[in-house]
Amino acid sequence: MSKGYWVSVYPADSGPERLAAYDQLAGPAVQAGGGRVLSRLPSSGGRVVAHEAGITQRVVLIEFDSFEQAVAAYESEAYQKALVALPDGFQRDFRIIEGID
């Protein structure tokens, strides 16, 4: 069974403090859904080098044991409540992808 991943890129950084309410709800929802945060740059202090059309703003990578688990976690009631907490006009590029075995 292939792993599943959430990949979020925030093209415009309007301040991490604006995401505080979302982060407080999303973290427990992700954990309850079986997700493991692999990377949250640059807010976690890690390094990033962007090439081509890449950006250096917030990038989040979360791993799940399966693609289906990743989709179910996104569709969960707990995570849907977290989405409501995203600030108006906040931009992000979010996708769920299937890993390669």
UniProtKB/TrEMBL annotation:
Coiled coil: none annotated. Transmembrane segments: none annotated. It comes from the Bacteria. It holds the Pfam family DUF1330. Residues 3-100 form the DUF1330 domain. This is DUF1330 domain-containing protein.
